[in-house]
Design brief:
Elements: H1 5-18, H2 20-33, H3 44-56, H4 69-87, H5 89-92, H6 104-112, H7 116-132, H8 134-150
């Protein structure tokens, strides 16, 4: 059975009301997977992009075209997942169905020079990849930690 947002919201309400201990355990498990802090100032997206590009050896023109389109798409998805980890960690784990925080994808689009359509599709794919692929998820966590330390975020 496929769950839509209404069914999910109803399930969460029942879980919280009728099974609070299970709801607490689930919340604790989710919180262990999430970074404790989030960035709020969008100016840091440029630093995240620069650190990501440096670590992955990406040149700016590779974000939208090139010989290896698969590699470009994968890099955009990975970068988007890392940015979401910094700005909207609940979204990357799909523990929230709210829209991505205002301005985050717009600023990321501006930094890497892609269209709104490409950015939206990339974000959706990044969320799915994070949930489904262990290697992708591990790389997001690795890059998140590296970028956090390199830029001294949350100090």
């Amino acid at each position: 059975m496929l769950m839509n947002d209404q069914n999910s919201a109803l399930m969460i309400t029942v879980l919280r009301n009728d099974y609070p201990e299970i709801a607490r355990q689930i919340s604790e498990k989710i919180n262990k997977q999430l970074p404790e802090q989030a960035l709020h100032n969008l100016k840091f997206i440029g630093q995240i992009v620069a650190s990501f590009k440096n670590e992955k050896g990406i040149t700016e023109r590779e974000w939208t075209k090139g010989k290896s389109m698969v590699k470009i798409v994968e890099s955009r998805e990975l970068l988007t997942a890392v940015v979401l980890m910094f700005y909207h960690r609940e979204k990357i784990l799909k523990s929230s169905s709210e829209k991505t925080r205002s301005g985050v994808l717009r600023e990321l689009r501006r930094q890497i020079g892609v269209s709104q359509e490409v950015s939206s599709k990339t974000a959706a794919n990044a969320i799915v990849a994070f949930k489904v692929y262990e290697n992708f998820r591990q790389e997001v966590y690795r890059l998140y930690e590296l970028i956090k330390i390199e830029n001294q975020f949350f100090k």
